[in-house]
Design brief:
Length: 217
Amino acid sequence: MAVMELFTTLLDFVLHIDKYLEMFVTQYGMWVYALLFLIIFVETGVVVMPFLPGDSLLFVVGAMCGLGLMSYPLTVVLFFTAAVLGNQSNYTVGRFLGAKVFQWEDSRLFNKAAFDQAHAFYERYGGITIVAARFMPFLRTFAPFVAGVANMTRAKFTLYDVLGGALWVGSLVTVGYFFGNIPWVKLHLEKIIWAMILIPGLLVFFGTWRARRQADK
């Protein structure tokens, strides 16, 4: 029962993140930047936290920057830094643990199915997975971890990490900045957030299915 309540609360936060963020900004002022930095860092840097609202958070914060409630330059710099450092942390843990991860079982703290999907995607597309995964919920949390497990060199990983972080943060915050406050977008924000979650998720499953199908051949 407690798990369902937690899931319902989290889902409500994700789907109505604009209202929650506006409340946080009003109540806590500059401290909201520290909170947002932490959310982005944890989502990208802690392999057991793949459910945090990365894409929708960037978009909504961009919209709030467009309203003048938050600083666009400061937001982009902080989010980019959090995204890069989070991936570096995740990669380091994966490299330290190595092949032992393949023996782990699915649990509340480790989603083995999501790990397997990320690994299959990585095996097919290589380093570019680190860039593409930024735009895919769940996969973006496991991709740097998988890269560490697979012993990708730190220099190569950092190149993809910085490129992916810049594209992810820069594009979504900027799109939110220019389009997030259009009346039609605000009216249909919940549907847009669902689309941001489901469409990349379907692409991940399709890519994983193709990778496994070719591996079986």
